[in-house]
């Protein structure tokens, strides 16, 4: 039986890496780190969200990255990645300030806190979650 969160990684596909990188760094006030291409025969541009380098994907939570790669397009689909926030209304507001849009304003979800949905500069739908 898996004792921790079974989700270990996510990828958000983008068309314009510089635009997408600027959006996520501004909305979450963080720095993404370039990952060298592990498969040179496939052209990829990848930027990791911060994560614990010593434990990598073995701790609770999931590491993830922005990826630009032929054959994989951004846009809405069946999966939504939620980002933890102190107050999801703050990141929703930043999303709009940096070229995104709000799909669902901050909404109470009972004892589970609050969530909001935004579209990034690439058209991807992402979730924001906070307890206040």
UniProtKB/TrEMBL annotation:
Q: Where do the coiled-coil regions begin and end?
A: none
One Pfam short name: Glyoxalase
Entries under SUPFAM superfamilies matching the protein: Glyoxalase/Bleomycin resistance protein/Dihydroxybiphenyl dioxygenase
Q: What CDD domains does its record include?
A: SgaA_N_like (cd07247)
Q: Which organism is it from?
A: Pseudocalidococcus azoricus BACA0444
Extract the Gene3D superfamilies matched here.
2,3-Dihydroxybiphenyl 1,2-Dioxygenase, domain 1
Q: Which domain of life is it from?
A: Bacteria
Report what the protein is called. VOC family protein
Q: What is the lineage of its organism?
A: Bacteria, Bacillati, Cyanobacteriota, Cyanophyceae, Acaryochloridales
Q: Which positions fall inside the VOC domain? A: 6-131
> InterPro entries, alphabetically?
Anthracycline_SecMetBiosynth, Glyas_Bleomycin-R_OHBP_Dase, Glyas_Fos-R_dOase_dom, VOC_core
